[in-house]
Write a structure and sequence with these properties.
Blueprint (H helix, E strand, L loop, with lengths): L3 E10 L3 E10 L7 E10 L2 H8 L8 E3 L2 E5 L4 H4 L13 E9 L3 H5 L4 E5 L7 E5 L3 E3 L6 H4 L4 H15 L4 E4 L5 H13 L2 E6 L2 H9 L4 E4 L5 H12 L3 E4 L6 H14 L13 E5 L18 E5 L2 H22 L11 E3 L1 H4 L2 H7 L8 E3 L6
Parallel strand pairs: 10-11, 10-13, 11-12, 13-14, 14-15, 16-17
Antiparallel strand pairs: 1-2, 2-5, 3-6, 3-8, 3-17, 4-5, 6-7, 7-9
The structure holds NADP nicotinamide-adenine-dinucleotide phosphate.
Length: 372
Amino acid sequence: MSNNSTMLRSTVTDDGVVRLTLIEEPIPEAGPDEVVVAVEASPINPSDLGMLLAGAKPESLSSHGDALVGQLGGGAVAANAARLGQAMPAGNEGSGIVVAAGASGAAQALMGKRVAALSGAMYATHSRVSTAMCVEMPESVTAEQAASCFVNPLTALGMTETMRMEGHTALVHTAAASNLGQMLQRICLDDGIALVNIVRREEQAELLRSQGAEWVVDWSADSSRDDLTDALAATGATIAFDAIGGGQQVDTILGCMEAAASRGAGFSRYGSDTHKQVYIYGGLDRSPTPLTRTYGMSWGVGGWLLTPFLGRIGLEGIVRLRERVTAEITTTFASHYAETISLEEMLDPEVARRYAVPTTGEKRLVTPGKHA
Ligand SMILES: NC(=O)c1ccc[n+]([C@@H]2O[C@H](COP(=O)([O-])OP(=O)(O)OC[C@H]3O[C@@H](n4cnc5c(N)ncnc54)[C@H](OP(=O)(O)O)[C@@H]3O)[C@@H](O)[C@H]2O)c1
């Protein structure tokens, strides 16, 4: 076995270029409570793209020697100011076999096991991971099945947990045909929670209905506003998780929630006193989020991120959610991948243009053991 590891690095330069390269370094050593994972599989999630491509437009990606380079759009250099010139690792999560372990009992217990891991450096043949960020997988679970155990499963569960913690009883989700959206639909079916799915194409509505979704609103339909208000009135959903961020959708959801809450109630100049909440948890559209504020005064719009949510529920909550994910990783929390690609293929402009745009059913899985 070679003593070297191949690792992907992403560097943004002050002339507005992002450069992806593969470097060779000695396999990292595990600290006392760490393990070294020989990475088998790691998804390219929308949340990885910021670190990887730093906002470079897919059409600008090209080869330069052994590197993949892309041109950053206006404002992107400033947005990346804190990382200029630094060769950053990427790949939030993945799965692999523990090939070296530190001295602690927790680390030693993982030696030789397949784990799901969260390190921020999984686009590599080897990644050093804290044992707190490793979950041992049952023997029957494959590397591909174990690759997406953290980011989407815990976020989907975080949505239903947040709904309960904040006193809501049903929820709305946008870009709902995503991998995460399909997971959320399965959680809601299992847990008896009413979920209003918003999608942007009829095929996506069909996909969710074929998986048992009762409430699906197709944003491209002329009747979408009425359809959403009817679904909100029927389900009582007063909290929404929005993956898109930019455009009119947040404002429209709040308007429809207000219309649903006011149905049958007499006129009030201050609007309903039902609290309506939208959390923006993704940035699929980077344009501004206009708010017309035509829905009374009981509403909120905020950001939602997995890490602070995990801090909010504490260790006991995290263990409870992780145990559910591990037990249901091949069912409720299963992810779908369109293609597996090697580290070398990540630098191929044609392949990169495919993974750079998060599209329904088109997620890529990086398999560092594979060679182009
Ligand atoms: N805040 C957090 O902690 C956190 C954690 C995990 C995930 N996330 C977010 O969760 C979302 C889903 O992740 P995923 O891995 O499940 O994604 P995915 O499987 O790659 O699916 C992406 C989905 O987004 C849709 N989409 C893309 N651009 C869109 C736009 N401008 N307007 C409407 N829909 C659009 C795509 O539909 P089309 O096929 O129509 O393009 C597709 O259905 C991402 O936004 C991600 O950043 C956030």
